[in-house]
């Protein structure tokens, strides 16, 4: 390995003993290492028994008992408690534990749960919560408020906080400017390690959530970074310019959050400097904000592919209905295309009604082959793995897989058809039809998302409608068409 | 906001000027802030023109030119270059830039690309690469090797490295024990800030990738943590026990990586201590390893839902074929269920062949409604949002959405059917059928994944087969069944 894998902790302990600081062993410490409270099940969830108890205590009006149970929880667990509790319990719960409702609890909360809770508060009350938050969390919450509450809240904030939030809101939705912290540590390259430590010790109001310091030139442009671990390692007299890492990944303030997340992933960043158009350092993004985005963006792709909109289980029923029904109606439209094609062959079906029994198999399996390819393609596009350099190669690859899949499925389905119907021509027709539909599905699964991506649209949104329409329509067309022209139905 | 949002960088600069360290302004520094090399397009991708140049230089055998172009790249970009380059170019490319093939390049590489490259190396050569890596990355690579190459590689390693890797490999696949670093900084609570800084400065072989120090008791159990930013802020004489944060999230060494990732997300962790069965500190997991897991786990769900297996665009064709064809054959089996149901109604269809034209609409739209609900449910389960506490509520919620969707789509489809066929009974039959199938889809979409989850299986793997089978079968059954019993076809 790069460095010794000996457990360095032991070294630290040994050294300390050498220094004569004999360790003492208070028994009571034994328990302190364990931090998973009883309120939790093993898998990071609040125990449902715990939630039930809270709910029944709220119903009994025993707010003090509720407070005592909730007080030891981590803010993230309190936030989760609200999501787990039934809707009608949430406001009384918030009232019972008012002074535990810290900014952290609010910002960790599921957005729909939070939106509902904040509706019951005045602009002044929301402003009091906002005032405890980091800028990026504050911006998220303010942007979720309706226009009037947003105005009230902004008015109730200090002019400094208001200006910071309004500036952040002026950046595009989901851009780096909305996610960044303005509270960061920037130093000059001529400072020594000792100067920096002195500066950090003297300034109590600096953030504690930073993992590297940014080195800037006199016009405030980033010229390097220095990890805190490095700062701690170097002698006090060392100059920052000699120990800083001069290359760094800069984030333009208008960059989309998905691109920011990809950059963090690719370069393994812990934090990164955000710069404005003229290259000046205006903020910092840290990895903890990125984690939520990576999950959200991947979730978005799953949900978009299935047309489920925002798809959160806490979303109000009417919102879910609106986004889903739009998709179902669109789907109805594309189903009509397939239906129309079947309509052309009503005569053929009337002569051999078994075709109606078999045709959904051809369409369905082709659709599945298309969905497989599409899922792979959409994710490869989203993670920048599929680019102009390897796009032809990817299409060829999918075609080869589709050929193999098509041959295999055609053999299986053909054998089955022959065993049931003892009709050679029908066997040939269905085998040929399913093979070509699997190939069509494979091609559509890669070409449709690629085309949307090239055209600048999100391939996750509309691809599956087009792919399914293609495999349905072509499945019915090839199967019923081949049945007609082959003379299978004797027409 | 929690702390002043004034840009603290300015404060640092001002203070420095007060200290008399006048900033100088070398012009050449202006360029140093910009770190996006020409080799990149705006969106974190290698420019395809750059890749093309490399490929043609390799083909011409101009290795020196290739080396000069690749040398300035970040290791993550070199790794990406291999994925973008055609397969036959990859080994000559590796040969042309041998001494740029650092451990970091190898560990950043797409696993399929890496596997192919490592095949051409001897165990000794792989061992030389492994020796440069952090333990967690080394473990990943060793576990990917085939049995024989794995043995050769382990033999060629130093006994210390071999022991560390073998110990990690003894933990279950995808567990915390496989992901953890053993190289961490642990200190005793009686040490002062000055002691810790002294210890860090004296020990050159410590890792630089750490963001907090772990505080342990004499039997090496974690009792607290201290962020480096806090360490830098506190006076030298402060004792660690007074400034450490006593609560912390401990990761059991056998915990599944998905649970580890959820814990990092929920509690916003940068690093966490890994403990063995007896609660002793045995390793550390850092957030940069978690980011990959979060993305991979979400990607896995998308790909599993569509039956696309591992689904990477770099996976060998035969591997993709094997995982996908298994799914298609399974799908063929479930399609037979639907087909059999249609078979029962051949008489009905023969009497009114339009039914064959309309029936795929009922099945398809119901299937879509099921997929929407399923995607929401699978993600809510994966992110621990859907638990015993809110499961009944979620089912009710989906039922209400399904009712609204069903009513709306039934009206639209009914109106369309009436306009085309002017047949009141047919209109009633199709409207009733699609409404009930959308409700069935909505229920199946939440109940199927919930059942798999309760039974301890991964709901993403098999849910979509069962949901589609249900909506197909029930769609045909309700539509053709209603058509038969209503007397629509005059039977």
3D architecture notes:
- Two copies of one chain form a homodimer.
- Chain A has 491 residues and is mainly α.
- Chain A folds into three domains: 136 residues, MgtE N-terminal domain-like (MgtE N-terminal fold); 102 residues, CBS-domain (Roll), CATH 3.10.580; 169 residues, SLC41 divalent cation transporters, integral membrane domain (Tetracycline Repressor, domain 2).
- Chain A contains 23 helices and six strands.
- The first copy, chain A, has a three-stranded mixed β-sheet with strand order 1-2-3. The first copy, chain A, has a three-stranded mixed β-sheet with strand order 4-5-6.
- In chain A, a hairpin with a 5-residue loop joins strand 5 and strand 6.
- The longest helix of chain A has 31 residues.
- The radius of gyration of chain A is 30 Å and the shape is globular.
- The N terminus of chain A is likely disordered.
- The interface between A and B is large, with 202 and 203 residues.
List keywords for this structure.
homodimer; 491 residues; mainly alpha; MgtE N-terminal fold; CBS-domain; Tetracycline Repressor, domain 2; 3 domains; three-stranded mixed sheet; 6% strand; globular; disordered N terminus; metal ion binding (chains A, B)
Please report the two chains with the greatest interface, counting residues with C-beta closer than 8 angstroms to the partner's C-beta: A-B, 202 and 203 residues
What overall form of chain A do the CA principal axes indicate?
A: globular
CATH class assignment of the largest domain in chain A: Mainly Alpha
| Radius of gyration based on Cα positions of chain A | 30 Å
Task: State the low-pLDDT regions of chain A, or none.
Answer: 2-37
Oligomer: homodimer
Q: Element order, helices and strands of chain A? A: HHHHHHHHHHHHEHEEHHEHEEHHHHHHH
User: Could you give the order of strands across the largest sheet of chain A?
Assistant: 1-2-3
Which range best describes the helical content of chain A: under 10%, 10-25%, 25-40%, 40-55%, 55-70% or over 70%? 55-70%
Counting DSSP H or I runs of 4 or more residues, the number of helices of chain A is 23
- The proportion of strand residues of chain A reads 5-15%
Structural class of chain A: mainly alpha
Number of strands of chain A: 6
The CATH topology label of the largest domain in chain A is: Tetracycline Repressor, domain 2
CATH architecture of the largest domain in chain A: Orthogonal Bundle
Distance between the termini of chain A: 75 Å
Largest sheet of chain A: 3 strands, mixed
Number of domains of chain A: 3
Identify the CATH homologous superfamily of the largest domain in chain A: SLC41 divalent cation transporters, integral membrane domain
Instruction: Give the mean pLDDT of chain A.
Output: 85
């Amino acid at each position: 390995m790069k460095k010794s894998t000996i457990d360095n902790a032991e070294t630290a302990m040994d050294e300390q003993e050498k220094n004569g600081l004999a360790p003492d062993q208070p028994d009571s410490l034994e328990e302190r290492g364990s931090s998973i409270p009883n309120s939790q099940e093993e898998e990071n969830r609040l125990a449902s028994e715990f939630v039930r108890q809270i709910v029944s205590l709220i119903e009994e009006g025993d707010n003090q008992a509720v407070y005592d149970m909730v007080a030891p929880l981590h803010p993230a667990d309190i936030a989760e408690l609200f999501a787990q509790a039934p809707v009608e319990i949430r406001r009384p719960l918030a009232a019972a534990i008012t002074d535990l409702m810290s900014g952290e609890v609010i910002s960790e909360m599921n957005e729909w749960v939070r939106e509902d809770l904040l509706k019951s508060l005045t602009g002044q009350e929301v402003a009091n919560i906002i005032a405890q938050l980091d800028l990026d969390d504050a911006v998220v919450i303010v942007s979720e408020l309706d226009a009037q509450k947003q105005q009230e809240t902004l008015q109730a904030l200090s002019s400094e906080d208001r200006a910071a939030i309004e500036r952040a809101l002026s950046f595009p939705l989901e851009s780096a400017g909305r996610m960044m912290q303005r509270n960061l540590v920037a130093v000059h390259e001529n400072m020594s390690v000792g100067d920096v430590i002195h500066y950090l010790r003297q300034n109590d109001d600096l953030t504690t959530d930073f993992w590297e310091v940014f080195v800037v030139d006199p016009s405030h442009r980033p010229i390097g970074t220095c990890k805190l671990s490095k700062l701690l390692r170097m002698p006090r007299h060392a100059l920052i310019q000699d120990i800083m890492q001069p290359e760094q990944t800069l984030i333009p303030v208008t960059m989309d959050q998905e691109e920011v997340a990809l950059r963090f992933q690719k370069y393994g960043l812990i934090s990164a400097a955000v710069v404005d158009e003229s290259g000046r350092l205006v903020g910092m993004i840290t990895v903890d904000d990125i984690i939520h985005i990576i999950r959200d963006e991947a979730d978005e792709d799953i949900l978009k592919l299935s047309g489920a909109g925002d798809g959160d289980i806490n979303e109000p029923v009417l919102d879910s209905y609106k986004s889903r029904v739009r998709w179902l109606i669109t789907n109805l439209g594309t189903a009509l295309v397939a239906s129309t094609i079947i309509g052309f062959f009503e005569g053929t079906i009337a002569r051999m009604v078994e075709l109606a029994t078999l045709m959904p198999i051809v369409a369905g399996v082709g659709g599945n082959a298309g969905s497989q390819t599409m899922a792979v393609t959409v994710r490869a596009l989203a993670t920048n793995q599929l680019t102009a350099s390897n796009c032809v190669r990817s299409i060829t690859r999918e075609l080869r897989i589709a050929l193999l899949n098509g041959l295999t499925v055609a053999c299986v389905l053909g054998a089955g058809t022959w065993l049931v119907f003892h009709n050679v021509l029908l066997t040939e027709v269905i085998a040929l039809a399913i093979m070509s539909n699997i190939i069509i599905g494979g091609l559509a699964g890669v070409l449709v998302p690629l085309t949307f991506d090239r055209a600048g649209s999100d391939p996750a949104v509309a691809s599956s409608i087009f792919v399914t329409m293609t495999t349905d329509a072509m499945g019915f067309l090839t199967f019923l068409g081949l049945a007609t022209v082959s003379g299978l139905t004797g027409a």
